[in-house]
Amino acid sequence: MKYSFEKIFIVLFLLIIPDLFSENTQWYRGAFRLNSSVSSGGETIDTIARKAVKTDLNFIVITDQFLVRAEYGFPPLRNLFKVIKTRPSIKTYGIERYLNKIKSAEKNNPSVTIVSGADIAPHYFWEGSIFSENLTCRQFSEQMTVFGASSPEFYRKLPVIHNEYRFESFADVLLRLSPLLLTIFGLLLLFYKKSYYSDAQGHNYYRTNKFKIFAGIIFSITGLLWSLNNEPFTQKLGENQYATNAGTKPYKKVINYVNKNKNAGIVWSAPEATMKMELFGVKILTIPYIDDVQKTDSHNGFAGIYGDTSTAHYPGKMWDKMLLEYCNGKRKVLPTIIGESDYHGKGIREIGHIQTVIYAKKCTEKNIVSAIKKGKSYALQTTKNKYIQLENVLLQQGQAVAKIGETMQVDASWPIKFTISGKIVSDEKINKKYPAKLTIVVDGKIQIDEYVNISGNFKWQYFMHIAGNDLKKHYLRFYIKTTDAGWLLANPIFYKL
Question: SS3 string of the chain?
Fold first, then answer.
């Protein structure tokens, strides 16, 4: 039986066309970094999910605090004689119980996708002395956020300070128990007796050696306490809190651990936030850790919009420096930005006040994590139920097209066209104009910086000439700030010459 070319083409077209149009890529709105009553929040995970549905959010990322514990030990036996302060966390609640609550909440609220995660503080350290009344706990709130991991074993072995694992190699156990040799020696001193005289009837006579008894007691107690202080059956996964020169090592350790799990991602939380307080006469201080964000590689980025003032997105500042490193090949992983809600359910801010908006075919957990890691997203801050909503963002040259988080090939001899379209979403009935400022940044330098008035729908188009430099690839990014409808910070579009 013979088939004409036209018939074959029609059959192939009919087979392929459903896949092309069955899943249209679109924007999905979500809230990243939400705390429930498991740790520092005031609402259950199920309540948060119901609120997300009412706010028309498509997804939420629950990230309760994994482990909140401060510990100060008195030398030389810091692990035996110490003061401990803890707060509710995933560890105290139960890891499996926490993950099951998330699954249950998603089952009860099927219209919202829930991604599991955790807030982690990998390290802190002590400065000063309790005797000099200047004891300070430094960087207790230098936090990162893990998202996308749903395995209890993953969380059990997170290498953060005070996380402990109850399994150790036999050789390590013996090494930590080695001070017991002192105890054995001390017991020998105490109980070993040598007679100095024996009478005719065979009776032995012994002298009491007070020094030997004293030495035996000291050796026995020292060996026992030393062994207990070594915590022989406990593997500590984090770094020592008394080491002030750990630098970025604790954070690199966590990043490397998370990267072994392809389903998970890790971002820095609120890198420019400051926290100062005093508790029980002890100063607790966390200064902005923006330098640590830049010094560490292979993480997935940081919070670009959050509850505190942020400047890392300003042209030529930290984010541009990191993006240029990525374009030069010096940085392995794309440093994206997210909108960090930091929601605690206590009336401070609404659940949708700060959002992360992703671009994906379906709003599944896998797609959410992938979109955030690949930068197919933007961060958004709303103001009184008003916000900017993007509809289309395109970088074009001829037939070549790229969207947020994508890369395209271009010809340096021709200009590129950049298009941004969207609208202001508002519950106001009047057609109000919103003054706004649009900033377009190319390779760390301002390309467009202009004031506009947004009224309802908007569409802006710009033709730009490509500047030549030694970068392996280039990027374009933008942000929009309004006076009364929040602001938006987008991840870059990349292009190669």
Answer: CCCCHHHHHHHHHHHHHHHHHCCCCEEEEEEEEECCCCCCCCCCHHHHHHHHHHCCCCEEEEEEECCEEEEEECCCCCCCCEEEEEECCHHHHCHHHHHHHHHHHHHHCCCCEEEEEEEECCCCEEECCCCCCCCEEECCCCCEEEECCCCHHHHHCCCCCCCEECCCCHHHHHHHCCCHHHHHHHHHHHHCCCCCEECCCCCEECCCCHHHHHHHHHHHHHHHHHHHHCCCCCEECCCCCCCCCCCCHHHHHHHHHHHCCCCCEEEECCCCCCEEEEECCEEEEECCCHHHHHHCCCCCEEEEECCCCCCCCCCCCHHHHHHHHHHHCCCCCCCEEEEEEEECCCCCCCCCCEEEEEEECCCCHHHHHHHHHHCCEEEEECECCEEEEEEEEEEEECCEEECCCCEEECCCCCCEEEEEEEEEECCCCCCCCEEEEEEEEECCEEEEEEEEEECCEEEEEEEECCCCCCCCCEEEEEEEEECCCCEEEECCEEEEC
